[in-house]
Design a protein that fits this description.
By secondary structure, the protein is mainly beta. It is built from 2 helices and 16 strands. The model has no long low-confidence stretch (mean pLDDT about 85).
Length: about 210
C-alpha cells in the first residue's frame, strides 16, 4: 500500500479477502483505486489490481452505502445555513434513486453508522447527533421515514458502532471498539460474535479494518 494510501473497505469473496484502497499517484497526478487480494487461508498477497478513481461511483458520492433486501441505500452528510443533516438515496437495480431527508431544527444530524432490517421493505436508520441518537423507521418502497418512538431502540449503543453491513443470512453485523456484533431485532439485543481480546492481533488493526 502506498504511503499516502488508505483502506476504504474490505470484503470476502470465494476464499479471498479483498481490500479496496485509495491512493494518490504523484506521477499521474490523479487518484487511483487499488484492490489488494489476499489468500484467506495463508494471508499472503495473491494479486494486486489498480484502476483510475471513479468520481461518479457510489463509493465516491456517498459517505456510507448499505445493501438490504436488494435495495441499495446511500448516505450523505450535508449542511445548510442552520444545521447538519443526512440524506438517504434508495434504489433497486438500475432504477432511479429516491431521496429521503433526515433533518431536525433542534439538533445537528452527523452520521448514520448503521441501517438494519425490521420488516420486509422496512429498515431502521440510526442517526448520531450532538445530543442523543435518533432512530428513523424507513419505508424503502415508498421512500418515507418516520421518527421512531422514544425508547424503542435504546438497547443499541449507536456511539459504539464503527462500521456495519448486512450478512448473507439477512442479519446485520457491526464492528465496535471491542469486537464484532450481530443485531437481534426480535429480542431487542446485540449478540457478541467475536471479541478482539480472543486473539493476539493488534486491536488497532482490527478496529480500523
Amino acid at each position: 500500500l502506498p504511503n499516502n494510501g488508505y483502506i476504504e473497505r474490505i470484503r470476502y469473496e470465494d476464499g479471498k479477502v479483498i481490500a479496496r484502497a485509495s491512493a494518490f499517484d504523484s506521477n499521474k497526478q490523479s487518484s487511483v483505486l487499488i484492490d489488494l487480494i489476499f489468500d484467506a487461508k495463508t494471508g499472503k498477497l495473491a494479486d494486486k489490481k489498480e484502476q483510475p478513481y471513479d468520481y461518479d461511483s457510489d463509493e465516491s458520492q456517498y459517505g456510507r452505502i448499505y445493501e438490504v433486501d436488494g435495495y441499495k441505500i446511500g448516505m450523505k452528510s450535508e449542511w445548510d445555513e442552520e444545521k447538519a443533516y443526512c440524506e438517504l438515496y434508495i434504489s433497486q437495480g438500475d432504477g432511479e434513486a429516491l431521496q429521503v431527508e433526515l433533518k431536525s431544527n433542534e439538533t445537528n444530524y452527523y452520521d448514520i453508522p448503521i441501517v438494519f432490517k425490521i420488516a420486509d421493505n422496512k429498515v431502521v436508520a440510526a442517526v448520531t447527533t450532538d445530543k442523543t441518537p435518533v432512530f428513523y423507521e424507513v419505508d424503502l418502497q415508498n421512500a418515507k421515514a418516520d421518527e421512531a418512538k422514544a425508547g424503542n431502540y435504546d438497547w443499541l449503543n449507536v456511539s459504539n458502532i464503527y462500521y456495519s453491513l448486512s450478512g448473507t443470512d439477512g442479519s446485520t453485523y457491526y464492528s465496535s471498539a471491542n469486537g464484532i456484533y450481530k443485531i437481534d431485532v426480535k429480542n431487542k439485543k446485540t449478540i457478541e460474535i467475536f471479541n478482539y481480546s480472543w486473539c493476539s492481533t493488534n486491536r488497532n488493526y482490527l478496529t480500523n479494518a
